Structures are given as structure tokens and as C-alpha cells.
């Protein structure tokens, strides 16, 4: 049944008796297949887990996130906004911020920075999201982003070593010192 959800093949359900697990709706939501999510909602009793909304959000399927919000009770976790930040889905983040209470973890801005989604970083910063900045050993940033970080998070990056490539003066690399 999980493959049915992934592929949208409903015929098997009518001819099989083993049913499915919540994985079916979770996977369907994660790949943005709203028609399968709706069908499973009506024709099965297994439902879904918070993974459904988390995965839909992380993959940018706002229509699925909205539908789950209205029709299901499982909700999501902070992983929904974290993964949306990681993948640069600002409209999903804005909607989650306005309509859900789970928020994001303190790593969301770092996820967005690592993937160069500065538009997401700016939104999360404006929302006063708590930050655990730069948990990655190396992070390559444009000079503009580095200057913005310095202006807004100077205390958080003061312990980082800054490497400026002589060959590529467009980028700055922050290296977190290893804890010995």
C-alpha cells in the first residue's frame, strides 16, 4: 500500500485486504500527491503521522500542508519549518509561522545559510527566531551575507576563524574551531 501512495495506483486497495500503515499517507504527502492523501483520508483508517506535514513542508507542497492542517489532527513538528528552511521554501515557512504554533528549531537559520537561502534567513531573523548559528565545520558565504551576519550576530560568530580565498574574493569561509 505504501507503493500505491507513492504511485497513485488505487486499484490494489479494492483487491487487497492487508490494508496499509500511516506510512502511505505520510509518503503521499511528502511527494505532494494531494489526491492520494485525500483518497487515503476517506478510504482508510490508518491516517498519518506528523511526518506527513513535515515532509510536505520540507518539499514545498504548501497545498498539501494546508489540506492536512484543515482535515487532519496530527499536525507537525518543528522539523516542518526546519526542512522548509533547508530547502528554501519561504512561502511554506511564512504560512507555517502564521498558522501553526510548532515554530522551528534554533538550527533553521543555519540550515538556510548552508544552502544559500538568504531570503529565508532574513524572514526568520525578522521573526526573532532563536538561533544556533553555524553548527557546521565549514560554511561558505558571500561577502554580503557575511557582512549581514557580522552586523546581526557578531557575538555568535566571534569565535570563528575567517578564511578569505585569494582566488575567489567573492566568498568568505567561516571555520568553527574544533573543541579540543
Automatic annotation (TrEMBL):
Pfam families: Ank_2 (PF12796)
InterPro entries named in the record: Ankyrin_rpt (IPR002110), Ankyrin_rpt-contain_sf (IPR036770), SecEffector_AnkRepeat (IPR052050)
Protein name: Ankyrin repeat-containing domain
Organism: Phytophthora oleae
Phylogenetic lineage: Eukaryota, Sar, Stramenopiles, Oomycota, Peronosporomycetes
Amino acid at each position: 500500500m505504501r507503493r500505491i501512495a507513492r504511485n497513485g495506483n488505487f486499484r490494489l486497495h479494492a483487491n487487497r485486504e492487508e490494508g496499509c500503515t500511516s506510512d502511505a499517507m505520510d509518503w503521499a504527502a511528502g511527494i505532494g500527491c494531494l489526491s492520494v492523501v485525500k483518497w487515503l483520508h476517506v478510504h482508510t483508517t490508518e491516517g498519518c503521522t506528523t511526518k506527513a506535514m513535515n515532509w510536505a513542508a520540507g518539499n514545498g507542497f504548501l497545498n498539501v500542508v494546508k489540506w492536512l492542517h484543515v482535515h487532519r489532527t496530527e499536525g507537525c513538528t518543528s522539523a516542518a519549518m526546519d526542512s522548509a528552511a533547508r530547502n528554501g521554501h519561504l512561502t511554506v515557512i511564512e504560512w507555517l509561522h502564521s498558522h501553526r504554533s510548532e515554530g522551528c528549531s534554533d538550527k533553521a537559520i543555519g540550515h538556510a545559510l548552508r544552502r544559500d537561502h538568504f531570503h529565508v534567513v532574513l524572514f526568520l531573523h525578522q521573526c526573532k527566531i532563536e538561533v544556533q548559528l553555524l553548527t557546521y565545520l565549514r560554511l561558505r558565504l558571500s561577502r554580503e551575507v557575511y557582512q549581514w551576519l557580522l552586523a546581526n550576530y557578531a557575538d555568535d560568530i566571534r569565535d570563528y576563524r575567517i578564511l578569505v580565498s585569494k582566488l575567489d574574493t567573492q566568498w568568505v569561509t567561516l571555520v568553527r574551531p574544533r573543541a579540543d
